[in-house]
Amino acid sequence: MVFRNADLPELFHHTDAIAITSQREAVNTTRVQLILLLIGTVPAALPWHAKLGTTFQLIDAVGVLAYAGVLFTTYLATRRRAKSHWQLNRSAAEFIKSMCWRYSVHGSPFDTNAPHPEAVFANRLEEGLQELRKVGWTDPRDLTADSGGLITESMRELRNKAFTVRKETYIRDRLIEQRTWYRRRQEVSRRATLLWSSTIAVLTSLALLSALLRTFSVTQSFALTGVLSAAAAACLAWNEIRRHHPLISAHSLVEEDLEAMQVAMETTLTERQWPSAVFETERIVSPQHTDWLARHQM
Q: Can you tell me the distance from the alpha carbon of 75 to that of 70, in angstroms, rounded to the nearest whole number?
């Protein structure tokens, strides 16, 4: 049997879509702010001037518009709270996904001998989502009448399969899928770290050269040094915001833990040990666990 994201309830898809949209908005807002701050420093470094009338400097007006744009985007970001919506909805989506997998393959506390597993699933899910509501999460079911049920037919079908089928499906479509995702993110983060570290080093070196030329009176202006310094600072800020370096270590540790779980599930794990093993695997892949590892790798 194959079990994919498409087999999860509509609540997951609503929440996941909001998380993706909010993430894109938050990232783009930060990118635009850094670019505008950099553009604001450029007019001072240009050797020519263009006047409108006797006093109005056209080129300097570009800097004014750039800084005004930063203030405007900051105001919008404060009002829309895209970053907060992104993090809350991502946590909600991953929580729903994890609970659905645990229910579908008899993971704890929805093991084979659990009484009324559907009721327990609904209660545990609502309890977890209620905690997210307390910190600002907006339930998409409050905004749309078409939210669907919490348990899909595919979830029921997988739950009714034999242990060997459930184990094979979980290992292939959940555990190995997550291992592949973490491995892929490591490679993306490594390439990004190399790119931004190299860019920062080049810009800083050019700023150093410009400062040396000014020190020995070869040039008369610090304007170019300022632009290069601002560009390096913007790249450094972007690299820190994306947290590429700590995420490499965090994702590597998660992948190692998942590899150990996969070996155990495929070899020595018994059906009696299965519920707790699924519970532990879901804990490992949770965003909170990854974030904790990333923070402690910084």
A: 9
